[in-house]
Specification:
The complex is a heterodimer of chains A (85) and B (137). Chain A has 85 residues and is α+β, with helices and mostly antiparallel strands. In chain A, 27% of the residues lie in helices and 27% in strands. A five-stranded mixed beta sheet of chain A has the order 2-1-5-3-4. In chain A, helix 2 crosses helix 3. Chain B has helices at 12-18, 48-63, 94-111, 127-134, and strands at residues 2-6, 27-34, 40-44, 68-74, 76-78, 83-91, 114-118, 121-122. Classes of the chains: A alpha+beta (85), B alpha+beta (137). The interface between A and B is medium-sized, with 17 and 30 residues.
Chain lengths: 85, 137
């Protein structure tokens, strides 16, 4: 299935892209699984998204937990903890 | 209820007066966040940011008597002393207005997708902000 993935702030800079459309292998159906899939690319993907890093996620523009399900056509975003206000 | 994410500055006085038009309003509480000491650039997630702010305002309306409310958050390049954010809440009585205003700010700090970048780099999220938001649970 295909999903749109977006990256913001420090994560966007580290990864060198604001986002991409990704065709996911079968079995990748949660936020945590998608993150692990991206980490498996290695290099900066591994260092920026490694489990020890504080990374927040949103699915279709709502804050989402790692266990949140994703389906075809979803917009999934990864970003550092927010610092507005 | 008004939620705005914008680059331009705002007139807090005018925004607060606009909340006083309803004769049922007896109290308007507000908070203005200001850039302290160093210039910064504010990035946001267009679409989600507005949506997150709306949800925070709705949550506040469910908890307190809120007659009207305005949230304005700026994005882009900001200099020291520039205004960053306005939260203004109109209620019949001050207790609701104060509480809802503080709640909205605390939730905005941890739930609304904004990120500050200074010359030294991206600003790190603070644990005290998480703690401030948690006390409303």
């Amino acid at each position: 299935m295909k999903v749109k993935v977006l990256y913001f702030a420090a994560l966007r800079e580290q990864l060198g892209t604001p986002g991409e459309d990704i065709e996911l292998p079968s079995g990748v159906a949660t936020v945590a699984a998608l993150r692990a899939h991206l980490v498996s690319r290695g290099g900066t993907w591994r260092s920026a998204l490694a489990e020890a890093k504080l990374v927040r996620a949103a699915v279709n523009q709502d804050m989402a937990k790692p266990s949140a399900a994703i389906k075809a056509g979803d917009e999934v975003a990864f970003f550092p903890p927010v610092t507005g206000g | 209820m008004k939620v705005c994410v914008q680059a331009q500055d705002f007139d807090a006085g005018a925004e607060m007066r606009a909340l006083q038009r309803d004769p049922k309003v007896g109290a308007v509480a507000s908070f203005v966040g200001v850039v302290r000491e160093v210039a910064m650039t504010l990035e946001h997630y267009p679409g989600m940011t507005e949506r997150a702010l709306q949800k925070i305002v709705e949550e506040a309306r469910g908890r307190w008597q809120v007659l009207d409310c305005t949230v304005i958050h700026r994005v882009g390049a900001l200099e020291p002393t520039d205004q960053i954010v306005l939260v203004a809440v109109a209620s019949a009585h001050r207790g609701d207005a104060f509480a809802a205003c503080e709640f909205i700010m605390d939730y905005l700090k941890t739930q609304a997708p904004f990120w500050k970048k200074e010359a030294a780099g991206w600003v790190e999220a603070r644990e005290t902000d998480d703690k401030a938001a948690e006390r409303w649970k």
